[in-house]
Amino acid sequence: MLWETFKLALQAIRRNTMRSFLTVLGVVIGVAAVIAMVTIGAGSSAQVTADVETLGANRLMLSPGQNRMGPGSGSSSARPFDLSDIDKIVEQLGSIGVAVPTATDQLVAVFGNENYQTSVTGTDSGYLTLSEWELSSGRGFTDAEERGRSVCILGQTVVDELFGSVSPVGEDIRLGTLSCEVIGVLEPKGASTFGTDQDDVIIIPFRTYARRIAGTMDVPMISLMMRDGVSTDRAVNDLTALMREIRRIGASDEDDFTINTMEQLSAMLSGISSVLTGLLSAVAGVSLLVGGIGIMNIMLVSVTERTREIGIRMAVGAQSGQVLLQFLVEAIVLSSIGGLLGIILGMALGFVGANALNVPFIPDPSIILIAFAFSAAVGVVFGYFPARSAARLDPIEALRH
Amino acid sequence: MATDPAPTLIELRDVYRIYGHGEAEVRALDGVSFKITTGEFVAIMGPSGSGKSTAMNVLGCLDRPTRGHYLFNGVEVGGLDRDQRALLRRHYLGFIFQGYNLLPRTTALQNVELPLIYKGIGRAEREARALAALDRVGLAKRSHHEPSELSGGQQQRVAIARALASDPKVILADEPTGNLDTRRSEEIMELLQELNRREGLTIVMVTHEDDMAEFADRLIWMVDGQVEFDRPTRKGAA
């Protein structure tokens, strides 16, 4: 009986192909939008994770004070670090391979008549190792230079702005009162996940930065790299224990420093992307609702048009429940077809969109199932009222129609 | 056996069908009583508004009497609810309408299969029985035609096949020739008469044409919701 009802529903839908198609269009668009959004969203999350890995997956950042919003964003009254902390970390922790001081400020760089404001980072050559950054020309800092010489390494953007096509290596630029020699140029990295230009940077030795620019030997942040094969948890635990000891934090007191891992950063960015996906999906959900109302409308029209058919069916012995089922199944089949079309369209859009945004195409089977189930549910919800009004028809009136 | 009187199939006992209340009360059936036995061919006639259609709706379990008793095969069915009446129609009644009432854009065969679907009969048997019913009305060759491809007379034959397909105890025909010309009408009446004579099918028919009523054995004449007379037709008396 159910199979018969199903075939009957297909027949009824085929009889009015154009109208059926227009009816389900709302559901098609709704489902397609959800699928496309979620697919592209999953793709961008994956992209974010991949991007974060280019920053150095094994990287940790240690900053003073308690902050929960990512590196550098929390100002606090906690004591900064000093260079001896870094020596202790490198000496005592087997899980940490590289630890370098990191300080950043915005300064104007001048070369000849050109000047350009950029981000100046004071750090040591280990920084390039832990951020997996190569030089496209020139060389890194020597140990002697790290003790406080006036040398610098430029990002590609800075080179473009200040030098144009001239080779910068060997030239002197001026940063505020500091004149320094360009010894290297960084391999271009492009835009970061946040959309900032990673190549818009000048790197100088930390001691040079501390003496000539910051005016203090305090270390505002320490960048670290775990050794290969060390779990993030272990490295964080080791580092926490050591820092508590160095900073003499009582057993009952909270840490006055924060360790940020790339995993956290990646999770935070994915979180942002999933919030966006959620919002867009909610909008798509509204479209599904509208699609459902379209189905209800057309089913009501259909019941009116087929009043006589309903009368005939009742005359030959159809019970109310069977008439109800017939129209309900028809609505469900209709909306499920819309769901299927929407899934196909959504995958196509997701594929095109993922390519356009340069993120991987990651179809999610569970969201496809959910979308299909949801579209069928739309049929149940919005088909019930018209089906019930069909089932309640008086056979005599219906036959006279 | 031969001397036994045929069993009563249908009995209306003092049946009222009243619409409205008080001043606006309309008695479509006003104390109707009659019996129909198995194998009879009965015509119900009367002027418009006489209650013959209402009587037909009550007999067909499409409507229920306001008061009185309707016994079908000895069982009180006047008080059945909607779904029970649907079951009664499904298993015991076959309908023929003035406007044929076939499903459009559906083949003759599928139309005839319709009542069998609701009887829950499987596809193969259903098709066989529907084809046999079409054969009985002489339309086996047209089984794959849709109503729009058939003449009025042929459409009514399909409708008769549909009524026959479910093996009903009685066929209820509401003005079956109302939409047909004289020649087609007589062909339809001859078909019904033959089904009645040869297969012993019980038929109750509402009509307003005397010529058609003459094909029946018995005539019930209604006026103002009451049976005015109930007698054999000339053919029935012969």
UniProtKB/TrEMBL annotation, chain A:
The keyword Transmembrane applies. The keyword ATP-binding does not apply. Belongs to the ABC-4 integral membrane protein family. It is found in: Cell membrane. InterPro entries: ABC3_permease_C (IPR003838), MacB_PCD (IPR025857), Macrolide_Exporter_MacB (IPR050250). This is FtsX-like permease family protein. GO terms for molecular function: transmembrane transporter activity. Residues 20-241 form the MacB-like periplasmic core domain. PANTHER family: ABC TRANSPORTER PERMEASE YTRF (PTHR30572:SF4), MEMBRANE COMPONENT OF TRANSPORTER-RELATED (PTHR30572). It is a multi-pass membrane protein. It comes from the Bacteria. Signal peptide: none annotated. Keywords: Cell membrane, Membrane, Transmembrane, Transmembrane helix. Residues 282-395 form the ABC3 transporter permease C-terminal domain. It holds the Pfam family MacB_PCD. The chain crosses the membrane at residues 21-42, 279-303, 324-354, 366-385. One of its GO terms (cellular component) is plasma membrane.
TrEMBL record, chain B:
CDD domains: ABC_MJ0796_LolCDE_FtsE. InterPro entries: AAA+_ATPase (IPR003593), ABC_transporter-like_ATP-bd (IPR003439), ABC_transporter-like_CS (IPR017871), ABC_transpr_LolD-like (IPR015854), MacB-like_ATP-bd (IPR017911), P-loop_NTPase (IPR027417). The keyword Manganese does not apply. Keywords: ATP-binding, Cell inner membrane, Cell membrane, Membrane, Nucleotide-binding, Transport. SMART domains: AAA. Gene3D superfamilies: P-loop containing nucleotide triphosphate hydrolases (3.40.50.300). Residues 10-238 form the ABC transporter domain. GO terms for cellular component: membrane protein complex; plasma membrane. SUPFAM superfamilies: P-loop containing nucleoside triphosphate hydrolases (SSF52540). One of its GO terms (molecular function) is transmembrane transporter activity. Belongs to the ABC transporter superfamily. Macrolide exporter (TC 3.A.1.122) family. This is ABC transporter ATP-binding protein. The lineage of its organism: Bacteria, Pseudomonadati, Pseudomonadota, Alphaproteobacteria, Rhodobacterales.
